[in-house]
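User: Sequence in, structure out. Go.
Assistant: Echoing your sequence, followed by the structure tokens.
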Amino acid sequence: MSSGIVAFAFGFPDTVVANLAIARLAYEEASRLSAPIYTQHEVHVHGAEYVDAPGPQGPIPTLRLCRAAVQWAHLRGLDEIVIGAAKPHLWRCIRDLEYAVQEVNFPIAVRASGYINKVAPEDWFRGDSQQWYTNNRLAWYLRDTILRIMPMFIYARIAS
């Protein structure tokens, strides 16, 4: 199986503790699998390829990164995407990647990196992000609950 790593930022800017942890886990997973890495500018990993630069509102939406990642994987002939993400963000990364794969009907498997469990839970919410909803657990879960119950067709339009 030919794998690629997709690392999702969790906050903004690149110096956020969560993004440093995601960069480390993506690098470790990529080293183990001899896999390329695709990520956002907020996650600096040596040798990675990057999606478009963030806009004035910060990092690009999760689904937009997923759509770009699926194209990236397809162009490289990869048949598996391994996700590097903050644990609270993981469910949406999986859902959005699977949705993006279905949109284009490419045979690409999606799974989470086991390295996610090496990050201490308190490192995800340190209060050092410029995005209000990644600064504390309550803000994240309030916003995330809305995204979780929102019908996918609405979510896909908003995230495009």
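User: And one key feature?
Assistant: The first strand starts at residue 3 and ends at 7.
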